[in-house]
Amino acid sequence: MSATQFFNEMTDFGGGVRPHYEKFSDWLQTTPPQRLADKREAADALFHRGGITFAVYGEAEGTERLIPFDVIPRIIPAQEWVDMAAGLRQRVKALNAFIHDIYHDQEILKAGRIPAEQVLNNAQYRPEMKGVDVPGNIYAAIAGIDVVRAGVGEYYVLEDNLRVPSGVSYMIEDRKMMMRLFPELFAKYRVAPVEHYPDLLLDTLRAVSQKGVTNPSVVVLTPGAYNSAYFEHAFLAQQMGVELVEGRDLFVDDGHVYQRTTQGPQKVDVIYRRVDDDFLDPLAFRADSMLGVPGLLDVYREGGVTLANAIGTGVADDKSIYPYVPDMIDFYLGEKPLLNNVPTYMLRKKEDLAYTLENLGDLVVKEVHGAGGYGMLVGPASTKEEIEDFRKRILAAPEKYIAQPTLSLSACPTFVERGIAPRHIDLRPFVLSGKEVRFVPGGLTRVALKEGSLVVNSSQGGGTKDTWVLES
Amino acid sequence: MLSRTADHLFWMARYMERAENVARMLDVNYRMSLLPQSANDIERQWRAALDTMGQLERYEKGGGAYQPLEVMRFMVLDRQNSSSIYSCLRAARENAHAVRGTLTSELWETTNATWIAMRSFNQVGLEGDGASEFFEWVKFRSHLSRGVTVGTMLRDESLHFIRLGTFLERGDSTARLLDVKFHELSTSDKHDDAAEYYQWSALLRSVSAFEIFRRVYRDVITPTRVVELLTLRRDMPRSLACCMEEVYELLQRVSNHRSAETERRAGELAASLRFGRIDEIFEEGLHEYLTAFIESIADLGNQISNDFLVPVVAQPESQSQQQTL
User: In sequence order, which residues have a C-beta less than 8 Å from that of residue B184 and are 6 or more positions away?
Assistant: First the structure.
């Protein structure tokens, strides 16, 4: 892919510096590369000492790696963020309305806007949730919406994460690190703060407690210290000033959930759970789960406790449902979508399958239930063998895949081995839904550090950048 | 506070203290082995040290020689040896990691940085002057983590459980050290005043008590006084009396509806040390006395686990799951 084919965040297609990057570009030109290298090294040492790490699957248990941190920020002008924020708010409202609907009257299925079997036969659809009312009809209190920029600069939603989206701690740590390393930059720019995210999160969690609960007690439920995102669980619990619990710390008694404390049992009202549905309750879901709380589902269904996010949100962020989000926005809100969806071929459809098989070399193919950048094919970046290999996998079970055109993701200057070079990025804003929809400006910018790579997932060698939304 | 959190804090502190005490024990042995003495005495000392730390059988199975460097390698670096300094620092860090949100960032980073440094330490570091330097480093890191604990942690239950772990472990360790060293020094092959002086003073130094001894007694070092200092002196920070007084006081602070009996036992033990007399201890027999004390510590540890922490059962293995980023 040649340098002119993608949108560069810092420079326009003519090579000139975009206005919102001008002051940064001047600073960069007067900063010796050695200083940047030293600062990056200092950042690594600080992250290491702080144990701000990520466990990587497929490696020995307990293997902790740093997520590479890039010292060049991604800057978003004020108006762009205002527009994006409106689109995110709209999208998450529609998604929450959709989840409520499919577990109640299923109007959208009756209206034929989404094929019923697509929803009801989906492995992520939880019949246990039918007829269960959740406070405020909020199912995804915390959503991470992956947004990319392509073509001449338009934004697309690539994926909705409505189960246990992670990464927000890196957003905050990256900001702290930038302020520590380059305080002078923050004197040049008015950057919208993000460090109050835990306050908003706590507020949101308290807002979704059950009716009649005053002064709700909130906990964060983690699978434990070996989980890949454990740092984040501990970080959020600490920043909110609430307990970080594991399944074995909780038990169910007489319609309520309690935590075992040094002073005896204490009632829990809201569980910000970072444990997948399948593991939440061994009596209801996977019987071999040691991460859950026996009997939790019954208490939950009876309204004895709030789970955030709710059980059964996965059906709405499934890649096979993704193509219908614009329909949801129209159906529930009567609005036109403000953010673009990426055109998506559903390979369970004959004509889409045929088209995809003919154009594998140009498309991105993803597993419907995959996540984290595992099990996907990026056609233009793959060898013939890899493509043929994937073709066999698709033919064996076409309904398990979707395909999308390969977007030429925007790139941001990034400090790499050979100096500063453009690398592809995405953005994960975190959308909180409680009494109202709230967020901190920006989100987590992930960057594919390998030249030309479009895969930004940290499990695939991606890094992160501080994200600056400028104040107007 | 969550029982499991209290449990991790308690054990984090115990393992850190244990690492320090293993370093102290090895240091005193190493220093003593540099004194002129028979090979027989040297072997006996290392065997006794291993025995104190509960590792004699395992070491014998491994067929290791009773040479300072080899025993030290086993007690410092061996990953399979759960009492090695390596294992203690790893366990301290793992416990800290499990409750990192409860710790101040200074305390977490101190514990984590200690572990990161330990991982890059190897056998070469123990050769030459390395051993003493390394033991100093372990003590220093333990001092640092204790200082950071007291200087930064909120004075609530979390601090109390950390301190409980520290003093329970320290009391146990002082008793064990005294037991093995007293036996060894009073039964060694040769008796001359100079050698005896160096050995007792090395023991005092190993528990940072040499200067304290001088200040307290202003007199010659005798075994009886050393034992008195390390058992009954309430103002000596590593003595049994001091440790038990702290344990008793801390238990009163964290008291719950189940803990009355535990508090009573701790109080009884603290009182017996407070009002005990050294000649009575020797009449009963020091070894018998210390053995009973070590049993009481183990009993208190169990009581504390049952009343406040996670009762001792097999822990479930972690299940991994994916959280995408």
Answer: B44, B45, B48
Residue of chain B with shortest Cα separation from A444: B325
How far lies B319's CA from each of A57, A61, A246, A286, A447, in Å?
A: 12, 10, 12, 12, 29
Q: Which residues of chain B are within 8 Å of residue A459 when distances are taken between CB atoms? A: 324-325
Amino acid (one-letter) located at A322: Y
Asked whether the beta carbons of A75 and A323 are under 8 A apart, the reply is no
Residue A56, pLDDT above cutoff 70:
no
Nearest-neighbour CA in chain B from A335: distance (Å): 30
Measured CA to CA in angstroms, residue B93 lies from A164, B67, B113, B167 at distances of 27, 30, 9, 19
Res A249 pLDDT > 90: yes
Residue of A262, A274, A430 to mutate, interface with B, max B Cβ within 10 Å = A262
Instruction: Give ipTM to 2 decimals.
Output: 0.78
pLDDT classification of A67: cutoffs 50, 70, 90: confident
Chain B: closest CA distance from residue A232 (Å): 10
**Local confidence band at A455 (pLDDT 50, 70, 90 cut-offs):** confident
Query: What percent of chain A shows pLDDT beyond 70?
Result: 96
Return the residue of A nearest to B105 by Cα.
A50
Beta bridge partners of A144: A161, A430
Chain A with chain B: Cβ pairs closer than 8 A: 119
| pLDDT over 60 (residue B315) | no
Q: What are phi and psi of B211, to 5 degrees?
A: -65, -35
Concatenating the DSSP letter of every residue in A304-372 gives SSEEESPTTTHHHHSTTTGGGHHHHIIIII----SSEEPP-EETTSHHHHHHHHHTGGGEEEEETT--T
pTM of structure: 0.87
Q: Measuring CA to CA, which residue among A199, A193, A197, A248 is closest to residue A225? A: A248
Q: Write down the mean pLDDT value for chain A.
A: 92
